[in-house]
Design brief:
Elements (H helix, E strand, L loop, with lengths): L1 H27 L3 E6 L4 E5 L3 H5 L3 H5 L9 H19 L5 H4 E9 L5 E12 L6 E9 L1 H50 L7 E2 H18 L3 E8 L2 H8 L1 H18 L5 E6 L2 E7 L3 H16 L11 E7 L6 H17 L5 E4 L4 H6 L13 H22 L4 H29 L4 H23 L5 H19 L5 H4 L11
Parallel strand pairs: 6-8, 10-11
Antiparallel strand pairs: 1-2, 1-5, 3-4, 4-5, 7-9, 7-10, 8-9
Helix pairs in contact: 8-9, 9-10, 13-14, 13-16, 14-15, 15-16
Length: 496
């Protein structure tokens, strides 16, 4: 009997210890722990944290009902939720959703302020009363809710900003697309002749340089055709400019049908047209020009008039400048006019030889005032004349090659000396001028090798050497520094 009493006493002691520990835990936590007897509608326990939560004592809270402190909206939600759970619990439902639950509510504090709280509850069956006890934990989440609201406000503000940016982006894309289309239209207008619908001179100029570079890189033939309508002024004078415009449009349409997709046909200006034929040699382009000439002559117009055209055709020569090439083709067209019109005349390239083979004579106006520079210029002219003479007299290739190398070496020496003089007198374009020197020397060296390898026609090389390096550079570039060098002549500062 004593052992039994001792066991009961120890058991009661253990229970008391557990209860004490739970009480200490409940009364020292920041959350408010409470136990409510739903059947008798009274609190059985409320922890001291109720004061921090509502600003009232435990005794004051014990006198109130379960929902006394909730705001109307919270009260309605809590009552509905609790009724549903307790009804199910009394019917034997012990599922997790029925036994346990939590929610966020608004709670009045004693000072009239409203706090946001989170209430977690668990339903317990009371064996003594046969009713339900509600074990609850109320936690102040006002600060957390404030942060959530601020975060949500910030998210909403950023969402609004993002939406605005997306609208702007969409608008910008639309504007960009519109601008792209307008730019395409403007570009088409900028490179297209309004009357004939052909490309214009601006576009052809850009294509010429591109095709020249391609032909040079891959050693491909490249030919230009220029044709001009015969006696077009008479058509305008006799039949009016409106009819003249119709003639130009018909000529353009006829010629366009005969060229390849890779060819470029453009209205050069007035009644003049030009065709650029890549990968086409002189004979091939001449055949194309003949087809177009015959087609133009066979066009039937509304007025009793026959329209014809004269053609100049020239194949680009490796190393030849655009200006030299165009001049040759234009001269061929000029000869076609003087030959009787309505015909095609080729420019084979031999026209360049007389330009380079004419003996050069020094002119006083070529003197810049610096004696050393003028002496070197004279020597360049003399060496060019000797080279021309050797070529005319069919000198052997070794002699010509020797004179050619001497001329190039003198050009390099002269350019270096001239650059020093220009720097000394303070010529503002000295750097640009030196850049031109480098380009000429580089091109001369490249063409010299191609000439010696028989990859370049003599006419093209001598035309470049004399027309561009010796005379051309002197008259086009050097004369630009003459006003600066002549200022120093009287003082003889740079004459030596």
């Amino acid at each position: 009997m004593d052992i039994m009493n001792q066991t009961v006493a120890e058991s009661n002691s253990d229970i008391a210890d557990v209860q004490l520990k739970y009480r200490l835990l409940a009364e020292n936590t920041g959350d408010c722990v409470w136990l409510y007897d739903l059947k008798n509608e009274r609190y059985k326990y409320i922890s001291p944290a109720i004061f921090q939560l509502r600003g009232i004592t435990v005794q004051e809270a014990m006198q109130q009902g379960l929902y006394d402190a909730l705001t109307p909206g919270s009260l309605k939600r809590a009552d509905k939720t609790m009724r549903t759970r307790t009804d199910s619990f009394l019917k034997g439902d012990r599922s997790e959703d029925t036994v346990s639950g939590s929610g966020e509510y608004e709670l009045y504090s004693s000072d009239g302020s409203v706090k946001n709280i989170e209430i977690s509850t668990k339903l317990l069956f009371n064996d003594e009363s046969g009713g339900i006890d509600i074990l609850g934990v109320s936690r102040d989440i006002t600060d957390r809710k404030m942060l959530e609201w601020r975060l949500n406000d910030e998210i909403a503000r950023r969402d609004k900003a993002i939406k605005k940016l997306q609208e702007y982006e969409s608008k910008l894309v639309r504007i960009t697309d519109e601008l792209t289309e307008k730019n395409k239209a403007l570009k088409a207008i900028a490179i297209t002749d309004e009357l004939t619908g052909l490309k214009n001179r601006y576009y052809l100029d850009s294509r010429l340089l591109e095709e020249m570079e391609r032909a040079d890189r891959y050693s491909l033939p490249l030919t230009m055709i220029i044709f001009d309508l015969d006696y077009f002024k008479r058509i305008n004078d006799n039949w009016g400019h409106d009819f003249g415009d119709k003639v130009l449009s018909s000529i353009a349409a006829t010629a366009k049908k005969l060229v390849r997709r890779s060819d470029t046909i453009a209205r050069w200006g007035g009644e003049e047209f030009a065709i650029l034929a890549p990968e086409t040699n002189l004979d091939g382009a001449t055949g194309l020009a003949e087809k177009i000439r015959k087609a133009i002559a066979n066009i039937v117009f509304s007025e009793p008039v026959q329209v014809t055209a004269s053609f100049g055709v020239g194949e680009w020569m490796k190393g030849e400048s655009y200006e030299s090439w165009f001049r040759r083709v234009d001269q061929a067209l000029y000869r076609a006019k003087h030959k009787g019109r309505n015909c095609v005349v080729q420019s084979s390239g031999v026209e360049l030889m007389p330009i380079a083979m004419v003996k050069l004579h020094w002119k006083p106006e070529w003197e810049c005032g610096i004696s050393s520079v003028d002496q070197q210029h004279r020597k360049l002219v003399d060496m060019a004349n000797k080279l021309i003479e050797a070529t005319k007299n069919d000198a052997n290739s070794e002699k010509i090659a020797g004179q050619l190398d001497s001329l190039i070496r003198h050009v390099v020496h002269h350019f270096e000396h001239e650059e020093k003089m220009l720097e000394l007198i303070g010529f503002p374009e000295a750097v640009r001028h030196a850049g031109i020197h480098r380009e000429l020397v580089e091109k001369a060296g490249k063409l010299r090798q191609e000439y010696l390898n028989a990859d370049l026609k003599p006419s093209a090389f001598f035309a470049f050497l004399v027309d561009e390096v010796v005379v051309g550079h002197l008259l086009a570039e050097d004369i630009m520094f003459f006003p600066y060098t002549r200022l120093y002549t009287d003082g003889d500062k740079t004459s030596e």
